[in-house]
Amino acid sequence: MFSSFWSAPVDPTAQNFFPVSSRYADSDLLGPLEPKDTEWTCAGGFAVETQTFYCFTENGTSVMVQVIYSSVGLWPTTQLVTRIYDPNNKETIWRSINVTNFYPGEDKRSSKSDQFTVSHKSTPGAEFEESYTIFGRFGDDLQVSVDINRPAAIPGFKIGKGPKGGFSYFGPDIERPEGYVVHRFWPRFQSSGIIVNDGQATSFAGPGMFVHAIQGMRPNLVAASWNFAHFQSDEHGGVSAIQMELTTIDAYGKKGAGSGKVVVNVGSLVVGGKLAAVTAETKWPGEPVPDKSSVLSQAVHYDKSLDDFTGYDVPSTISFRWTGPSVVPEAEGSLSADLLVQVGKPGEEIGLIEKVDVMAEIPGFVKAVVSYVAGTKPYIYQWLNPTTLKITGPDALVPGLSSGLEVNGHLYNEATFIS
What we know:
By secondary structure, the chain is mainly beta. It has one domain: AttH-like fold (Beta Barrel). It contains 4 helices and 27 strands. A hairpin with a 3-residue loop joins strand 8 (111-112) and strand 9 (116-122).
């Protein structure tokens, strides 16, 4: 109380949000992950920390396994979540369980509980430099086991180097922030696993991505909405395109409260089995968005209409764009990629997995945040569709890339509406 009394008053029109997408030069966006970056922090206060593994199988099925550590309630809770969706028969397996005796391993990169184990292994100099082995028991009728292997040519990344790389800070003092958001990525890995459902075992293999994320403040104060895109293809030696985008609430912006709705987008391109470009872009309210720039990272909703089921205006078409300098030393130049996906109007959805009513369908999460999101009804729209990524770049990555290539693959994407 006394330190607040004697502290200097804060200008109410001062900038109170510092996005990671604006703090680094175009040539410094690639921040290689350090071992500490993917350690569990299990932070106190208001924090939600997740490790999420997204996989595609040979037949286009989406397999997701996620560990959620939440300390926003009276005591920490940990959940294990899986969603398995087969677009061929439209069947979904969805489980979210509260786990007991959660414990980060001695390396803090592994973790375990009574219901699951996640074991990290590092093998420097090998073809696959890092791996995770995951086993989850979601009940007597469902077990999921997955081996995750990251190729040496596709390192993990964050935006910007150093301990502050990856962080967007909330509050007028970046050195003493009110809160933060951070994301660290493996943009492409190889997975293989077994799903045992009702006594029937099904094996799978395919590419995927991993993200370690932390929201270090009350969830309803972080963002009004999110977009997420995860495209993978085995063509041309392995291609991926990912994006994570948040739009802040109105309270955080360049000129203090009321200047918000700042859009922060980060992403990457893997081409020819190599991490080829890292992208980041900030959209400040009231400022023009450049149509041509050396770096672009954008998700745009088109043809929006009201969904009476959720109460939100949702798109029928979504576009994703990436532009950035090559980070491959032997392939100098710039890369650009575009992806357009039709998801249909309400009632005529295309590739819709589910409209996740966060408050109703994730009970453990609700117990932790319901006191802080009163008056909001968050929904997560999840889609899975075959689609085509149009990409250009240096021929040293893939022959013919300078003339443009169309890459066929699968896109898993989400649009989250919070307020």
